[in-house]
Amino acid sequence: MKNSIITTSGRRFPRPYAAMDFRSGILTIIYVFTILVTAHSTVARADENLDTREGETLTLKCRFGEQQSTNDFTYYWARWTTANKFDNVAINNVQLNTNYRIDFRPDKGVYDLHISNTSYGRDNGRFECRIKASGTGADVHQEYYNLTVLTPPQPPLVAPGTIAVATEDKKLDLTCSSIGGSPDPTITWYRVGSNSPLQAPINRGGSKDLQTTSTLSVLPRREDDGAKYRCVVWNRAMPEGHRLETVVTLSVNCKCNFYTSLVDYDKYSQTTIKFHKLLQS
Questions:
Q1: HEC profile for 212-264?
Q2: If we measure between CA atoms, which residue out of 223, 221, 104 comes closest to residue 172?
Q3: What's the CA gap between 98 and 77, in Å, rounded?
Q4: Using an 8 Å Cβ cutoff, are 23 and 13 in contact?
Q5: In Å, how far from its chain's centre is CA 56?
């Protein structure tokens, strides 16, 4: 029949109805494809940085589109601690620590983690909320928090000491260190009388039990004798405007030339001879 079309399934339709069948098939394919992409697309948000202190209570929010069927998804909260240790915190509506509580309302798009009595050892680190598709394990939603439990650093210590003996034109390393602090403290060197920071590399401890150090290298000259250098330690756990600091004073030994006179008697000419001998410090 010229006015009909035979489909791939062998069915015969008049031309107008065949066109409708073809279009409906295309629309069905597009609709199914859209559902699959939507179901397995991943929504990942940038890390959010949060500060807290020992013994406080806070909430880490995890929000997403409303989900009527919890059987299609699995919900997780997990953490990476400072020691790079990974632990699951909660799975679905089950929390795995007595200091954690889950607000599990997927029909409202809510999967929040409430933390009580925060502590550095347990909570300082990276928390992540993940929602995975059941069966495939594909991530459909992710949120991340970098949680810092604030701890002030200890007062700075300096080496070789608060009085540093140096030699003119010979390099001297002044090292300032501070144990602890969360986050790692900044250590800044200044020459007393100047507000411009000096270039000095810093080696961060990475834990509140380890020391952060900064080493300032100087090449003292004769006129630097008595010069003072300030080491300033700070992190955001400290009160507003508060700093920890100590001062190092240089005692420079200069390279000076000294002469001494030697007197000798020449018995043959019966004259006195004076010599000048150069002594270098």
A1: EEEEEEECCCHHHCCCEEEEEEECCCCCCCCCEEEEEEEEEECCCEEEEEEEE
A2: 221
A3: 14
A4: no
A5: 22
Q: Which residues contact 228 (CB under 8 A, 6 or more apart)?
A: 191, 192, 193, 247, 248, 249, 250
Alpha-carbon distance of 18 to 13, in angstroms, equals: 5
Segment (H or E) for 278: strand 271-280
Question: Comparing C-alpha atoms, which of 248, 253, 273 is closest to residue 261?
Answer: 273
Q: Diameter of the chain by CA atoms?
A: 150
Per DSSP, 151 falls in state B
Give the residue carrying structure tokens 């409202």. 108
Give 124: exposed, middle or buried? Use CB within 10 Å, 0-12, 13-18, 19+: buried
Quote the tokens at residue 264: 């000798």
Among 90, 92, 88, residue whose Cα is nearest residue 79: 88
Contacts of 118 (CB under 8 A, 6+ apart): 52, 53, 54, 55, 56, 57, 58, 149
CA dihedral 23, 27, 29, 35 (to 10 degrees): 180
Coil, helix or strand at residue 28: helix
pLDDT in tens, 69-120: 778 899 999 998 866 788 999 999 999 999 999 999 999 999 999 999 999 9
pTM of the model: 0.70
Q: Is residue 169 within 8 Å of residue 196, measured between CB atoms?
A: no
Helix, strand, or coil (residue 211) = strand
